[in-house]
Amino acid sequence: MASPPLAGLHPDAVPVLDLLTVPQVMARLQLGRSAVYDLLRTGQLASITLGRARRIPTHAVTDFIRTRLEQDAA
To answer: Residue 16: left (phi > 0), alpha (psi -120 to 50), or beta?
Structure first.
């Protein structure tokens, strides 16, 4: 049986989370590996662990940037 197309899903359906790897976050934030892991360790950047793999939701990167912009504006 085929899966329904995404356009046919109910609008209140839970959106698919885009998960990024640490190297992808490094590229997006233009930071080094240690800096990204420091942000993860201190809780400034949210992540999940799947087995031994660390994944960062795209919304966590957006939230981190928004928070930093608000702090800098204050």
So the answer is: beta
pTM: 0.75
What is the chain's pLDDT, residue by residue, as a tens digit (74 residues)?
A: 454 555 555 556 556 679 999 999 999 999 999 999 999 999 999 999 999 999 999 999 999 999 999 999 98
Query: What's phi and psi for 44, nearest 5 deg?
Result: -75, -25
Give Cβ neighbours of residue 53 (< 8 Å, ≥ 6 apart): 21
Residue 9 sits at φ, ψ, to 5 deg, of -75, 155
**47 by DSSP, 3-state: which?**
coil
Q: What is the DSSP letter of 48?
A: E
Among 3.10.260, 1.10.10, 1.10.1660, 1.10.510, name the CATH number for the domain at 17-73.
Answer: 1.10.1660
Q: Tokens 């420091």 belong to which residue?
A: 38
